[in-house]
Specification:
The protein is an alpha+beta fold and 462 residues long. The chain has a domain at 2-37 and 140-299 and 354-459: Outer membrane efflux proteins (OEP). The protein is 59% helix and 16% strand. It contains 9 helices and 8 strands. It has helices at residues 2-7, 27-37, 39-59, 138-204, 210-242, 264-272, 286-307, 350-417, 423-459; strands at 24-25, 65-75, 78-90, 96-106, 121-129, 260-261, 312-322, 331-344. It has a 6-stranded antiparallel sheet with strand order 2-3-4-5-7-8, with no helix packed on it. A two-stranded parallel sheet has the order 1-6. Helix 4 runs antiparallel to helix 5, helix 4 runs antiparallel to helix 6 and helix 7 (286-307) runs antiparallel to helix 8 (350-417). The longest helix is centred in the C-terminal third of the chain and has 68 residues, at 350-417.
């Protein structure tokens, strides 16, 4: 959670509790709610606990083990045997294991090899693999696997967090854009209603023909239709935004209809604060690292499989310390020992060679996918950066176009007032002005989407 909030510091200038009852919901307040309460963000944070659990499990490979085994047999009042064997084993990262144990056995029919002094004996065991398992073994495989899977959990957390933040920004900008378009449609309808009333009065006074009232009414109908459409779009955008709003008790929240978004351009500027990418290295992108993590896991499996191709030569040596017969009297002698040697030579080992071959194919496939996705990210960054420049130029053109349409509309209004223009021409000028204002909002929204994509790529550099 701390890391996510650090990423969003340019957004979060005030970390006080956010009130949904406020008059407006700014983008940094919205993202703060998402970061703190969204279920998928909470799910992503659980990957930290998962990583800690995996590391703990891996460390358990080196946990000492204490075991005790007792067997007894009595029949017809005869003590056939009592066998008691207790051992403490200490594994290590090296191909060497140590253990210490205690044996105490007795009975009429005790097997000779289990015969020990009456007070038992203590032994220390030294196990070492001299060929197979010398460089790599099951213990080191499990330790490496735990580290690899812990890294995988962190990668999954970053992938999920980044996607939620990216989608959150998009839905907010869409809500802000649709809110602005609804305002434009409202203002357009209000203006048309006033003009329609004036045209009717002019007709009643004999200054305008009846056809002008019909022309004005059609324009009013179109304005009403545009407002209804904008209200529908705003409602859908608000519903999509609600999907990202949750309280601190994991309950979904619904935005009050009185709450308004921050200005679209101001919201985009806040997102822009996090889009600076200078000489990005997309090998750090979590999806690229995910491929590498899969490769690391396969290579770890390969290292263990390659050990099976080697001959087996294991040495086991026990030192023995007698505790005496009649009384406890420990005695140690160099010639008291037990040892064993295990030798094994693989003949064909087709199973292992097949596993290695399959793993090599999987590694090659992952490397191809990794390189392909890396190139896609590079191309996406280059394309998005270029689109950002082009979209800014489009916005400038749209703003100039709006300025020109405003001049034409004002001129047409003056001509209409002095009787040198028609309702049709005035309506046409105003419709074009209305459409241009909507185009500018759409252009800003497209620019915001481009900035959001750069924000998405930026998060892969963390």
């Amino acid at each position: 959670m701390k890391r996510i909030i650090f990423i969003l510091l340019p957004f979060i200038f005030c970390l006080n509790n956010v009130s949904i009852g406020a008059d407006s919901l700014l983008i940094h307040n919205f993202l703060e709610i998402v970061v703190q309460n969204h279920p998928l963000i909470q799910k992503a944070n659980l990957f930290d606990e998962m990583a800690a659990a995996i590391e703990l499990k891996g460390a358990g490979t080196l946990d000492p083990k204490l075991s005790s085994n007792f067997q007894s047999k009595r029949f017809s009042d005869t003590n056939y045997f009592n066998i008691w064997h207790t051992e403490a084993k200490v594994p290590t990262r090296l191909p060497v294991d140590f253990s210490v144990g205690y044996e105490r056995n007795n009975g009429v029919f005790l097997n000779d090899e289990n015969a020990v002094p009456d007070n038992g004996l203590i032994y220390g065991t030294f196990n070492v693999s001299l060929l197979r398992g010398l460089l790599f073994d099951e213990q080191r495989y499990n330790l490496n696997l735990a580290e690899i899977k812990a890294v995988k959990s962190q990668i999954e957390k970053q992938i999920l967090t980044r996607e939620i933040l990216y989608q959150s920004i998009l839905v907010y900008l869409k809500w802000s854009a649709n809110f602005r378009k609804n305002q434009i449609a409202n203002n357009f309808l209000s203006t048309i209603q006033i003009r329609h009333t004036n045209v009717i009065e002019l007709f009643i006074n004999g200054d305008r023909p009846a056809v002008d009232t019909i022309e004005s009414r059609i324009n009013l109908n179109n304005a009403q239709k545009n407002l209804l459409k904008s209200e529908q779009d705003l409602m859908i955008a608000k519903q999509q935004l609600d999907l990202f709003l949750w309280d601190d008790q994991s309950n979904p929240m619904t935005l009050n209809s009185e709450i308004v978004p921050g200005a679209l351009l101001e919201s985009i500027k806040r997102v822009e604060l996090m889009t600076g990418l200078i000489d990005p290295d997309f090998r750090n992108d979590p999806l690229v690292r995910k491929f590498q993590n899969q490769i690391d896991e396969i290579e770890n499996s390969n290292r263990l499989a390659k050990e099976d191709l080697k001959p087996q030569l294991d040495l086991k040596y026990n030192t023995i310390l007698s505790l005496g017969k009649d009384e406890v009297a420990p005695s140690f002698a160099l010639n008291n020992y037990k040892y064993g040697v295990t030798v094994g030579v693989p003949i064909r080992n087709r199973k292992t060679r097949g596993i290695l071959l399959m793993n090599d194919v999987l590694i090659a496939q992952n490397e191809i996918d990794q390189n392909q996705y890396l190139q896609q990210l590079i191309n996406k960054f280059q394309t998005t950066s270029l689109n950002r420049i082009v979209q800014l130029e489009i916005v400038d053109v749209e703003l100039e176009k709006l300025s020109n349409y405003e001049v034409l509309f004002e001129a047409e209004t003056i001509k209409f007032d002095i009787g040198e223009s028609s309702v049709f021409m005035l309506n046409q000028r105003e419709v074009k002005l209305f459409e241009t204002r909507l185009d500018i909002v759409n252009s800003y929204f497209k620019y915001g989407k481009i900035v959001s994509e750069l924000f998405y790529l930026r998060q892969g550099q963390e």
